[in-house]
Structures are given as structure tokens and as C-alpha cells.
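Support reply, case 0932

Customer input (verbatim):
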Amino acid sequence: MATVRIIGPGRAGMSVASALVSAGHEVAGFVSSDDDPSDAASGVDVLILAVPDRRIAEVARRVRPVRSTAVLHLSGSQGLEVLAPHERRGSMHPLVPMPTPDVGAARLSAGATFAVAGDPVATELAQSIGGRTVTVRDENRAAYHAAAAIAANHVVALMGQVQRIAESIGLDLDVFLGLSRAALADVESLGPEAALTGPAARGDTATLARHRAALAPDERAGYDAGVALARRLVEESAVRQASLDETRQALQTQAGTEDVVPVEVA
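Our regenerated output:
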């Protein structure tokens, strides 16, 4: 098991620390990102920088390199270059919300997915707490993190819009949460194309127009963006299906025109 020190005792740092301790690792204390971190890499196997993205490079430069110590960050969008001048560099970004240390630790220990890169210790630590790992190269980090932000932050923001509209007609958000859970479950089991239902999927423009008319003006841009994404999904599904139908028809035509070779009976 590894000895780990963490710079940044915030929600992410505390969540990771708790999960690591539960898995049998030793956490050799925390260093505040405002303290002098010069010797933070000394006496440990791994140093984790659990600081905001904008501060990773600055904090990494202030830490005196130790050749045997791996330095990791938890950022989803940053590459490994921000960890210069350290020789052993890595990243492990957990794909779970960590609103509190307790909730974060529980989610990390329940089979969370980690995007890892660089030094193998990043993969080893993630897997030691029961995590699933995927490798994301530096050049793909921004796109990866955009997908993560959409999957979590944008979904939460959309539910904020649901809450506002629901409250405008005297309903609570929890009336709609079961619908959202079922839709996400369908996405997991069927994929987005097959899971999509509703007026945009059906091409019901009259209903879409009634929706827009019923919404407050400042809610329409968000609604329109959602409709556009749904229509794009429908169009992509239609193109894919047309391609499959064309291939199937070509194969059937080819099979129907093949010469039949007579079989001689002895």
C-alpha cells in the first residue's frame, strides 16, 4: 500500500483521502494550498494535488521534486505538463460529484470511474479503491472534461429549469424526478437514440410550439437548445438507419443474383 500526502484539504482532497484510507493506504496529512508546499513530496510515495485547475502548475512548481515520488493531480481538463518539473507525473480524475467529503468518499469507494494518465500509480490507486479506469490522452482532456461537465453540471442546470417551470404552476421538483431517473436508466440500457421519446422525437411541432408559448421568455433559449439536441439525435439516428437499410438491401440484391451452382448427384 502507498503512503500519500495531499495538497488541498477541500471536498475533493478529503473525499480521496477517506477512500484511500478505507482501502488500506496511509495518508500522511494535508498541506493547505496557501501553505509552503516545498517539502510536500518528501517521505511519501505519492503526492496528490487536489487544488483548482488554475493553481496546479503554480503549486507543482513550488514543490521540490523527489525522484521517487509520483505527483498526481485530480483535474479532468489539464494534461501532465502542468506538473513540471516533476519526473513522475500522473492524473486520476474521478467521474463522480463530490458535494461533501462523506458523500464523495462513499461514491469513490462504490466503483467510480477514473480517467487516468501518466504514471502507473494513478491506475493502481484508482483500482485499489474499487475504481474502474479509462485512459485519456493529454490532447483529449478538454473534450473529455466537456463531456463530463455536460453529463453532470448541465444535467443539474437542466433540473434547475425543471424546478423553476414546475414551481411556476405550483408543483414540486420531485414530481418529475422519477421521469428523469427512468430516462437515464433507458439511456444506460438502450443508448440515447433508442431512449429518446417526446414531441421532438415524434416531430410534433404543434406541441413544441405550445410549450414555447407557455414558457417565460427567459426560459425559451434553454428549451430551444434542448429541442435542437433532440432533433439532432433523431436526424443522426435516421441517417444511421438509412445506411443500415441500404447495406441490407445491397446484400439481399447480391444474394438474389448469385449464380446457382448445380450439385451433381452420384
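We compared this against your earlier run and they match. Two observations from our side: The longest helix spans residues 220-257. Residues 3-136 form a domain with the Rossmann fold fold (CATH 3.40.50.720). Please reopen the case if you see a mismatch on your end.
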